[in-house]
Specification:
- With 493 residues, the protein is of the alpha/beta class.
- Helix 5 packs parallel to helix 6 and helix 16 packs parallel to helix 17.
- The chain contains 18 helices and 14 strands.
- The radius of gyration is 23 Å and the shape is globular.
- 57% of the residues are buried.
- A 6-stranded parallel β-sheet has the order 2-3-4-5-6-7. Strands 9-14-13-12-10-11 form a 6-stranded mixed β-sheet, with helices on one face. The protein has a two-stranded parallel ribbon with strand order 1-8.
Length: 493
């Protein structure tokens, strides 16, 4: 049955309202300001948009001058995925470090301080936390972004993070529903598939999302994953059985549903972003996230026109689009009415958590270094969520404690011998990231340890491989503060 649009202007405004686009640059372009005047209600920010807290505050003020209730969103998980500190590394450890400590008050405090900093800059929606249970050790995209592999642990820390973030006036967007942890494929590149029975999904993957709902999360983000037990035909983002029947119906969630980035290949290669966006809204999604890669007015226009055309053709009921737009506006109203600056600063929360998250093997027989070492970083290809623009490792932090520290980055089959040649006579600190997932990295570390058994090893990913080296430090993440915590032990500070 064809749905009759009530009016082009209302329809067009609703189509714009459900979009969450990005843009390039550190000031708002004219096209974005114009779209805000026409009905666009949300804007997504990435590392490319941020230089400093002062600049970010000026940018969000520019957006609010055009639309006072604009919903400014960001992908700021802390840890490996940071946009606020993309150029320096994060002041906060990520979820895996918090899960390793397993102190709910600490998780709440870290999320609250992160939220305070976001709110102070005018950002009121955070696409975090990750509620994914990292049940697959080979997961290439979640890893240290997860609180851990135990559903109960992930559930309690997800709830603590949500309440901490929202206590600072920033809406949490818990992700990636119904759970991206049991995948061996990155949905940025292809469509992951999870072949487990429905009872496993309910007991394992959905537990943290139930906890997030109970904690009052204002938003949820869908995952571009195919789960045949729930829907054999379409990925979760485009699935009515997942978003409407399960999330809205069975779980009773009435808040905002945001899609993961629609330009990700799991959707764009199969459905295209226009048709994919129509299917997502029809399935129950309320906000279309786009802009991590496609960040221009043409993308906004294409998606707006696709939604309008789908309503006029009857493919998308107008009531469904209007309902989605209503939820976006309701969250925008909530964030606009929130108060920023009421939370007392806790500037050491991140470093305090990183120090507590550090796991030390061999420390009882280790003599701290007093001379500048050589830091050999065995560097894997960064996944798109993390990006390769954010520095990581321990070299910068060790240089501050042991001036004269030198460093190099190595990869591939010759990484171990290349690192030995570069180190010369210096003591070696080897930095790895998910050694268990990279055979070349494990081989390089073996080569290094056979020649230099006094090597210090720092694992900055998920510590699945057995500890090796004279001293082995597992930081549970590669944030700047994680590097600082490790460097303090190496230098005996």
């Amino acid at each position: 049955m064809t749905t009759i649009a009530r009016g082009t202007d209302t329809l067009t405004r609703d189509a714009l309202t459900v979009l969450q686009p990005g843009f390039t640059g550190t000031t708002a372009p004219d096209w974005l300001l114009r779209r805000l005047g026409e009905g666009l209600a949300s804007v997504g920010l990435f590392g490319r948009n941020i230089v400093s807290p002062e600049q970010l505050a000026a940018l969000t003020a520019q957006l609010r001058a055009e639309r006072p209730d604009v919903l400014v969103a960001i992908d700021e998980e802390g840890g490996d995925v940071t946009r606020l500190e993309a150029r320096t590394g994060s002041s906060f450890p990520g979820s895996h470090a918090l899960g390793a400590v397993d102190d709910l008050e600490l998780t709440h405090a870290v999320a609250r301080e992160l939220g305070r900093r976001l709110a102070a800059c005018g950002v009121r929606l955070n696409w975090a936390p990750s509620a994914d249970v990292n049940s697959n050790p080979d997961n290439p995209v979640i890893g240290v972004r997860s609180f851990g592999a135990d559903p109960a642990l992930v559930a309690r820390h997800t709830a603590a993070y949500v309440t901490g973030l929202q206590s600072a006036g920033v809406a949490a967007c818990t992700k990636h529903f119904p759970g991206h942890g049991d995948t061996a494929v990155d949905s940025h590149h292809a469509l992951p598939r999870i072949d487990v029975p429905a009872d496993v999904l309910h007991a394992r993957d959905l537990a943290p999302f139930r906890a997030a709902l109970a904690a009052g999360t204002r938003a949820l983000m869908s995952a571009h994953i195919l789960i045949p037990a729930l829907d054999p035909d379409r990925p979760a983002t485009l699935s009515r059985p997942v978003l409407t029947d399960l999330l809205r119906g069975e779980l009773g969630y009435q808040g905002l549903i945001v899609t993961d980035g629609m330009e990700m290949r799991a959707v764009s290669r199969t459905y295209g972003i226009e048709h994919g966006s129509v299917l997502a809204v029809a399935a129950g999604a309320d906000a279309i996230c786009v802009g991590g890669g496609l960040a221009d007015d043409e993308t906004v226009r294409r998606l707006r026109d696709a939604l309008v055309a789908a309503v006029r053709s009857g493919e998308l009921p107008e009531e469904r689009l209007a309902d989605a737009a209503r939820r976006v506006r309701e969250l925008a109203t909530w964030t606009a009415s929130g108060t920023a600056g009421d939370t007392a600063p806790d500037p050491e929360a991140g470093l305090r958590a990183a120090r507590r998250a550090l796991s030390v093997t061999g420390g009882e027989s280790f003599t701290p270094l007093t001379e500048a070492p050589y830091v050999a970083a065995f560097t894997p290809v960064a996944n798109i969520a993390v990006g390769d623009e954010t520095p990581w490792g321990v070299a910068a932090e060790l240089s501050a404690l042991l001036p004269g520290t030198r460093t190099g980055s190595f990869t591939g089959d010759s990484a171990g011998s290349d690192a030995l040649a570069a180190a010369g006579e210096r003591r070696v600190v080897a930095v790895v990231r998910d050694e268990h997932r990279h055979p070349w990295m494990a081989k390089a570390l073996t080569t290094l340890l056979e020649a230099r058994p006094d090597t210090v090893v720092v694992e900055m990913g998920v510590p699945q491989a057995p500890p090796r080296g004279r001293l082995h430090l597992a930081t549970h993440g590669a944030a700047r503060v994680c590097g600082r915590a490790a460097a303090e032990v190496v230098a005996g500070v």
